[in-house]
Description:
mainly alpha
Amino acid sequence: MNHQLRILSLRYLACLQAEPLTLLLLLAQAPLIGWLCTLVWGDSIQQDTPSLYFVMVLSSVWFGCINACREIVKERSIIERERLFGLSMAACVNSKFLVLALLGLLQTLMLQMAIEWEMALQGNFLLQTLALWEASLCGTALGLLVSAFMHSQDRAVAMVPLLIIPQILFSEFVIPREQFSELMRIVEKIMPTYWSYECFTETAALETDWLWLSGCLVALLLLTIFWLGITVVVMQSRWD
């Protein structure tokens, strides 16, 4: 599997490099969103707020989802053929995830630096970068899962709003958390925006609860691993 993972990762990286315009458009989203954030918070409010943190976190999940949502379904015929020659589904999924993880890191850094250029965010820069990146990784895993289910690229892209909108609906920015039903409290805990946002607010607090911060980062990592595992299972059930 390690040999397959290396070969598939290099091949996928070469495929991305062969589409420079697509890659440029994906990368350009981050500074553009960051610039729009500075127009709202920098010019109007002139300071960072919890709502800014939430927008940054939600944007990072969006990056991951939109980057990954087409990457399996568009190679469906190739995967079907190579499966006959012993292609590992785990290697296939992980190769895409590793390359997209690098892309997500670039996007989250560009988003963060575009905002930091105009206004200084409270909290530790590196920890906030890690929180955004892990949100992006979780979004990537969700995007790959959607891509494994869908039969066309158009359908996969159309599913992305169904991954993003619940991140907003099941948050305290829609209704106060004390008014959450028990179901909402449960669903909120499987949303990557919840854990990444908690990381942001904790780093910006006067006294950081390092245990809770570490737990939030671990939760994001576990969610990412879980969705990747489900993706592998779905692909194995489809092509075995």
